[in-house]
Specification:
Elements: H1 10-19, H2 26-35, H3 40-52, E1 57-66, E2 72-80, E3 85-92, H4 97-107, E4 116-119, H5 127-135, E5 139-142, H6 153-161, H7 168-180, H8 191-199
Parallel strand pairs: 1-4, 4-5
Antiparallel strand pairs: 1-2, 2-3
Length: about 200
């Protein structure tokens, strides 16, 4: 039904299923719609976009890291697709739109040579962030809902650094991660320095 009618959302599909006598909730329908992968043509188009413009694409994302005191740190990074180089990285315990704007100013201090900025649909990437990217000469390009594969190298970096994998080695290291990020237990130590000493 969704393949034949790609513009239909969960309410419309739910209504059609009720007409067919299938008793299912709209929430269940929306959950299954989110799981449906994009068409092969859409994947090919996006992959071609990433490949053809890789030298002028910058992507940004967050991942979280627990601390020794069981707080959660938000690690923000900007990566260049062409050389897979981390352009900027910083850590905070309370990310806001204003904080992200400041990080982007530090990441792109001069005339920006990137044409596209890939970001997800997180609420932290609000209007002020997209306005700054547009003013810098970049086109903010949001990925599809629940489609981390569209972020390209940023997704790989997040899954590696965030240890989202299932290997035994990563799981063991993840259990020790809070011990490394004490974040200020020694004089002159900061969350950012702890993070950079661990990953950079």
């Amino acid at each position: 039904m969704v393949t034949e009618n790609p513009s239909w959302g969960a309410p419309r599909v739910h209504g059609e299923l009720l007409k067919l006598g299938l008793d299912v909730s709209e929430r269940t329908v929306s959950r299954y719609l989110r799981r449906l992968s994009p068409s092969i043509d859409a994947r090919k188009r996006w992959t071609a976009f990433l490949r053809n413009h890789r030298d002028v694409i910058a992507a940004m994302d967050f991942f979280t890291v627990p601390t020794l005191t069981f707080r959660v740190l938000y690690c923000f990074f900007v990566i260049e697709h062409g050389r897979r180089k981390i352009l900027h990285l910083n850590v905070t315990d309370h990310p806001t739109g204003g904080w992200i704007v400041q990080q982007l100013r530090e990441a792109f201090p001069e005339a920006c040579r990137y044409r596209y900025a890939i970001l997800d649909r997180d609420g932290k990437f609000g209007q002020e962030v997209t306005d700054l990217l547009t003013a810098s000469g970049m086109k903010p390009t949001r990925i599809g809902p629940a489609s981390p594969w569209q972020k390209g190298y940023a997704s790989h970096c997040t899954s590696f650094v965030g240890f989202d994998g299932t290997s035994e080695k990563r799981r063991r290291f993840q259990s020790l991660l809070p011990c490394f990020l004490t974040g200020g237990s020694s004089p002159g130590c900061s969350y950012r320095h702890s993070f950079l000493s661990l990953y950079a």
